[in-house]
């Protein structure tokens, strides 16, 4: 028999009150992006605003913990566990060459046209034709290579 889930969750750790307003703003803009009309857009384009908001929220939490050291490890772990940030994306940002990665899907080779390749947004802009504008089909990114 499966476990019965209860609504007992730990209260947020100390320091959450300071960033709660900003996280609520991100949640509000996420709701607006989810409720936005999809008329006139390609199927893949409808998710791009959601991906961008998720990326910026994760980057905000990453910067708070790793760059500015403004939050505690306990609060950082709690935020990841509650889904405020993408833990897989943050893990990639800590690696060399992935500091500006837009989404984890762009480095997965199984979703790409050619075997073993990565997304077009991971190619440095110096190696692309200057006259063309490339957008990632997954998230709409126009270039997240660390070599740019």
From TrEMBL:
<dbReference type="InterPro" id="IPR018230">
    <property type="entry name" value="BUD31/G10-rel_CS"/>
</dbReference>
<dbReference type="InterPro" id="IPR001748">
    <property type="entry name" value="BUD31"/>
</dbReference>
<dbReference type="GO" id="GO:0005681">
    <property type="term" value="C:spliceosomal complex"/>
</dbReference>
<keyword id="KW-0539">Nucleus</keyword>
<protein>
    <submittedName>
        <fullName>G10 protein</fullName>
    </submittedName>
</protein>
<dbReference type="GO" id="GO:0000398">
    <property type="term" value="P:mRNA splicing, via spliceosome"/>
</dbReference>
<comment type="similarity">
    <text>Belongs to the BUD31 (G10) family.</text>
</comment>
<dbReference type="Pfam" id="PF01125">
    <property type="entry name" value="BUD31"/>
</dbReference>
């Amino acid at each position: 028999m499966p476990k019965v889930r209860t609504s007992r969750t730990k209260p947020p750790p100390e320091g959450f009150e300071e960033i709660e307003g900003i996280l609520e703003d991100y949640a509000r803009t996420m709701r607006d992006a989810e409720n936005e009309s999809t008329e006139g857009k390609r199927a893949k384009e409808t998710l791009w605003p959601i991906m961008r908001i998720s990326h910026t929220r994760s980057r905000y939490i990453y910067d708070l913990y790793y760059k500015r050291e403004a939050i505690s490890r306990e609060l950082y772990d709690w935020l990841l566990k509650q889904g405020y940030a993408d833990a897989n994306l943050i893990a990639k940002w800590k690696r060399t060459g992935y500091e500006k990665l837009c989404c984890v899907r762009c480095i997965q080779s199984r979703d790409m046209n050619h075997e073993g390749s990565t997304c077009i947004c991971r190619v440095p802009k110096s190696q692309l034709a200057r006259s063309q504008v490339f957008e990632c089909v997954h998230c709409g990114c126009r270039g997240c290579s660390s070599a740019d």
